[in-house]
Design brief:
Blueprint lengths: L1 H5 L1 E7 L5 H9 L17 E7 L2 E7 L9 H16 L2 E6 L17 E6 L14 E3 L8 H19 L7 H17 L7 H19 L4 H12 L4
Parallel strand pairs: 1-3, 1-4, 4-5, 5-6
Antiparallel strand pairs: 2-3
Helix pairs in contact: 5-6
Length: about 230
């Protein structure tokens, strides 16, 4: 499945200069996107890959949507809308001048949507709308709650569509290392029992990291007794 292979797609969408790139940088914990007071700085899709709650996530920063005669910016806006079409979750970012709800009419029907009101350090968010996350990326206010909400939607998205598959990156890493250890067992000679035992211990440890503690010594007793090669 594409989501399992590539990651859950979260698109940051909204008007120009509302703080989408700043939010992307906060999520990435680095300067992944150029941030400027000049509107229309982001012209193309900028994306980061990250582990959110143990799940693979792609966060995409998009060009701000506004009427424009600039050909390059027009292409960027078209790509923004295309990214929204392919998104698993759209984070509609707005500020005190351009509320995030303004972008809702451009969101494809049926898409998961989170509304964000940025720059509350400049203009406090009025009212008590539970459907809007009031944040200040600059002051790092409210961002953790937003990230938690995104993580919960990512988890629900994987659980609903990929039930029963190996989803968590940590689990996949342990299983790959387990398979590597098991593959090494076949390369040992019959007289290299100690080396076989160490590889089995390593494989069991990786499985145990997922399922819980495994009594490795008891398992070795059973394996070697069945193969009649001693311990």
């Amino acid at each position: 499945h594409e989501t399992l292979r590539d990651g859950f797609r979260v698109v940051l969408a909204g008007a120009v200069n509302v703080g989408k790139s700043s939010l992307l940088n906060r999520l990435a914990m680095r300067d992944a996107a150029i941030v400027s007071e000049q509107a229309g700085t982001t012209r193309d899709i900028i994306e980061i890959h990250m582990d959110l709650g143990g799940y693979p996530v792609i966060i995409q920063d998009t060009a701000g949507i506004r009427p424009t005669d600039n050909k390059v910016e027009t292409i960027g806006i078209a790509r923004s809308k295309s990214a929204m079409d392919k998104a698993d979750l759209i984070v509609a970012v707005g500020d005190h001048l351009c509320p995030s709800q303004d972008i809702s009419s451009l969101c494809p029907v049926g898409k998961n949507l989170i509304h964000v009101r940025n720059k509350i350090d400049i203009a406090p968010h009025e009212g008590n709308d539970e459907n809007v996350f009031a944040i200040s990326v600059l002051k790092d206010e409210g961002v953790d709650a937003l990230i938690a909400a995104i993580a919960e939607m990512v988890k629900e998205g994987f659980t609903q569509r990929e039930s029963g598959l190996i989803l968590r990156l940590r689990h996949r890493d342990h299983l790959e290392k387990c398979l590597d250890a098991l593959a090494r067992i076949g390369a040992h000679g019959e007289d290299e029992v100690d080396l076989m035992g160490e590889d089995i211990r390593e494989a069991a440890a990786h499985v145990g990291a997922i399922t819980g503690k495994i009594d490795v010594e008891d398992m070795l007793d059973r394996v070697f007794s069945e193969f009649c090669i001693g311990k």
